[in-house]
Amino acid sequence: MIDDHPMIIEGYKNTLLGENQKEYQIKIDIASNCDDAYDKIQKSSQGTPYDMLFVDIKLPPSSDGSITSGEDLAKHAKELLPKARVIILTMHREDHRIHNILKNINPAGFLIKSDLTSSELLLAFNNIVKGKAYYSATVNDHFRKMMTNKFSLDEKNLKILYHLSRGVKTKNLPNYVSLSLSAIEKRKNQIKEMFSIAKADDQKLLEEARKRGFI
Amino acid sequence: MNVRFFFGYVITLILFVFFGCDKNEIIEDKDLKSNLIESYIDESGNTKNSVDERIRNLEKAYSIYSTLINNTFKVEKIQEISFAYFALDDKENYRAMNEKALKLSREINDSLNMAESYAYLGLYYKSTKLDIAYENFYEAEKIYSSLDYRKYEQKNYAFDRGKVLIDLALILRKIKNYSESESLTIRAIENFVLAENNQYLPLCYNNLGIISKYTGLYEKAIEYHLKAIEYAKGTDTEVLQILSSYNNIGTVYKSQKKYDKAKEYYNKALAYKDFLYKNRKREARLIDNLAYVNFLSNDTSRLPELFFKALQIRENINDKYGVATNTLHLAEYYKSIGQDSIAREYGKHSRDISLKLQKNEELLKVYLLLSEVSDSDEALFYANNYIKLNDSLIKEERLFKDKFARIKFETDEIAQENQQISRENEILIIAILGLTALFLLGYIIFRQQQSNKELLFAQSQQESNEEIYRLLLNQQIKLEEGRQLEQQRMSEELHDGVLGRLFGVRLSLDGINQRANDGFTEARNKYIDELKSIEKEIRLISHDLGSESLPSDVAYIDAVESLISDLCDANEINFEFNNDEDIDWEVIDDQKKVNLFRILQESLQNIFKHANAKSIKINFDYIEDKINLTILDDGIGFKSTKVKKGIGLKNITSRVSQMSGVVQFLSNQDAGTKVSVSVPL
After folding, report:
1. Model pLDDT for residues B82-97, shown as the tens digit of each residue
2. For chain B, give me the number of helices (H) and strands (E)?
3. How high is the pLDDT of residue B518?
4. What is the mean pLDDT of residues B607-616?
């Protein structure tokens, strides 16, 4: 279990160890930062590998700066422990982040902390142990929205929409999205065309994006 | 109608004819009067009439003259009249006429005629009052010397001036100022040469000759006298000049004691018998002189007959001067041959005439002679008389010289004073002009500097305004940045810290709750759900805090709003402020922002000070590329015509015009005031 909040780890433990200790023999290692986590993952890959990893996205980065988040850590873990099942637990529920995590890690479990209850955690755990993937309702919702769209927006476009919706002005977007202003303008126009609302203003664009579930 | 027209025509015609006649009359009048004057003058010269009648003619001429208009022509006329009086030997009227001429020519500023009049007056006094004559001639000469002769007919000018100069010279010779007389004579000669008129040259040389004799330059004297004859050659006065010059040459030789030469010249003169026959006075003088030279050279062969011959002629023609000299000569003669009693008789006779005629030179000689030929008592008496007279003569001479010097000095002084005054005036005027110019220059420079200063001041005020605004804005931006940074931090803290831990707690509680079977599970679940909703709320707060919900250019509007709210709170007035979202304050230049800020400030001050308002409404609107600032209050308002533009309104107006915008002050009594500013982007 990798989380920088000991309270959360305790929450996980309290849930899993309470009901499930009769069915499964659960041994838990904990890490509160990337360095610690990476060390343990590497050690286990040479010894007894972990069966399951609980990974938080927001983590204190590694001291050498190579691993900055749970996302990076999960990627390493997939390589080091190919058989381990990765469960992502995060506070972030923004579509583009969900989208990214699904795409980059394709975790066996994807739980949004704010949705999570103890029973749901148990349910997810049981499903994953049985080899089934489990996603939070929010994540599933995201999936559904993605499927209903005939097209998908790439990460950059989603980011643009996300920051616009936060009230960032177009001209400040280059600070948030690593694109030039003209490239951003071009992408905005492309999105508008895709939404078949060309020549509409930003207000309309955001409205449509919300309706279509991109925000 | 017809009648009126007719009358109008007739009147016009009459007027026309009348005026036409009048004009002709004036011209004819002048000619007529001139002719009349001429004819009266001519008539006065008619020797057939009696003197009284001739004078009456001149009086008639004068009465016509006095109706003439003042001009040069009139001056000429009165001068002509004066000549006629002169010809009639009426010297008093001659003088009166010339005094009038002088006054008239002074009135009409005719310098040339003024000089002439002075000269004519000089002529009047010449034989009676030498000093006044001198004064007049001197005035004439002064005018001539001050005139620019190039402006006048040069020959006439030089001739007239020459005449004045020789007159002055003659007077000076008479008072024995020989050196000055000589120099004046030479100047007179120069003028006559310039005038190409030899008429007065003999007189000039004659004068030079006499002066030379007195100063002992005998050779020169003779030379001058001969020259005088030369210049008289071929003229009417040739013979007269020859006689006079020979006489003078004789006298020169007599003074040199060259008696033979003297006799030669007297005899030469006496050879002009025909002429002398008609000029007995001259003949008598020549004979007397010849006799006296004979006497001096001890040639007594024709003595005393020659003396008697001369005396007889002189007594016949009643030449008293001649008689006085003649009898003196006779007295000397008789004294020399020892007949003192006869000498005494002639001496006394000469003395009586000389006393009567005031012939002092002769008188002096007579006294000397009488003192020698009389008895001791009488001799003493005569000697005393001689000394007294001699003293008084010397004194008189000195007085005369002093008087002349004073005349010259006084007239020069007046001229100098005039010059001085005019120079002082000039200096004063120049000084005043200079000072005025200086003052003006100073004033202009001062104004220039002042306006420069004002400009500089306005500029620096502008700059400081902008600086203030920049600082204000910077402060606002920093504040904003700080706030955002703080919000970000709070957002992250909430999201990652508080929310995480809350989630952990909830999960733990939930986990434990699943296992507990004490009948309170449901109740706890309810609180766990509550915790979940708290989490959600915190997340939303965090989201709100973290998002860039405020545009970055909000800083200006923040500054504006804080200005309004600070001022309104301080003055306890309600306010409403609206800012049009379409205004992109970031692209508007600082100058405009500062100006709008200041206008707002100024307007609010006005409202607080004068309006007595309860609420204010302020709007920034964006309409057709223009920013419209409207400040509306519900105060007492003012009558726009009554209120003079104070410095506040002026400032607003000038700021608006700086931005090439438009401002409107709308107000009605008790209906509040609306200030509308419209500024193009």
Report:
1. 888 888 888 888 898 8
2. 24, 5
3. 79
4. 85
- 0.90 surpassed by complex ipTM: no
Q: Which residues contact B112 (CB under 8 A, 6 or more apart)?
A: B105, B143, B147, B152, B157
**pLDDT for B517 beyond 80:** no
pLDDT value of residue A151: 60
CA terminus-to-terminus distance, chain B: 78
Closest alpha carbon within chain A to B545: A166
d(Cα A108, Cα A124) in Å, to the nearest integer?
Answer: 10
Helices within B493-520 (DSSP H only)? 499-515
Looking at beta carbons, which pairs linking A183-188 to residues 24 or more positions away fall under 8 Å? A184/A160, A187/A156, A187/A157, A187/A160, A188/A160
* Closest Cα in chain B, distance from residue A47 (Å): 30
Least confident residue range of A102-116, B164-178, B354-368, B543-557: B543-557
Shortest distance, CA B617 to any CA of chain A (angstroms)? 28
Over 50: is that where the pLDDT of B19 sits? no
Query: B367-425: per-residue pLDDT in tens?
Result: 888 888 888 888 888 888 889 988 888 888 888 888 887 877 777 777 777 778 888 88
Check residue B618 and give its pLDDT. 92
B617 close contact with A: CB closer than 8 A? no
B205, B207, B208, B213: CA torsion to nearest 10: 130
User: What gap in Å lies between CA B118 and CA B85, rounded to an integer?
Assistant: 17
* Residue with tokens 């009567």, as numbered in its chain: B356
Nearest CA to B676 out of B648, B656, B659 is that of B656
Q: How far is A30 from chain B (nearest CA, A)?
A: 15
Please classify residue B425 by burial: count the beta carbons closer than 10 Å to its beta carbon, then call 0-12 exposed, 13-18 middle and 19+ buried: exposed
Give residue for tokens 């004066």: B82
Q: From the candidates B507, B537, B549, which should be mutated to test the interface with A, based on the most A CB atoms within 10 A?
A: B507
Residues of A near B (CB-CB distance < 8 A)? 3-16, 18-19, 58, 91, 113-114, 116-119, 121-122, 166-169, 172
Structure tokens at A20: 């499930």
pLDDT recorded at residue B16: 44
| Parallel/antiparallel/unpaired status of strands A109-112 and A85-90 | parallel
Helix (H) / strand (E) containing B203? helix B201-214
- Cβ atoms of A78 and A100 within 8 Å: the answer is no
Bond from prior residue into B202 cis (ω within 30 degrees of 0) = no
User: How many CB atoms are located within 10 Å of the residue A188 CB?
Assistant: 18
Read off the pTM.
0.46
pLDDT band at B445, cuts 50/70/90? very high
Closest residue in A to B546 (Cα) is: A166
Tokens standing for residue B263: 């006799």
Distance (Å, whole) CA A106 – CA A55: 13
- A118 to B503: CB separation less than 8 angstroms, yes or no: no
User: DSSP state, A172?
Assistant: G
User: In the prediction, which pLDDT does B511 show?
Assistant: 82
Amino acid B511 reads G
| Residue whose token pair is 């001659």 | B94
Residues A69 and A72: their CA atoms lie apart, in Å, by 5
Residue B249 near residue B269 (C-beta atoms within 8 A): no
Question: In chain B, which residue's Cα lies nearest the Cα of A21?
Answer: B515
Q: Is B118 exposed, middle or buried (0-12, 13-18, 19+ CB in 10 A)?
A: buried
What average pLDDT does the structure give for chain B? 83
Size of interface A-B (CB pairs under 8 A): 95
- A-chain residue closest to B537, CA distance: A114
The reply to whether residue B549 touches residue A167, judged by beta carbons under 8 angstroms, is yes
The angle formed by the CA atoms of residues B263, B269 and B270, to the nearest 5 degrees, is 85
The CA distance from B503 to A5, in Å, is 10
* Residues of chain A predicted below pLDDT 50: none
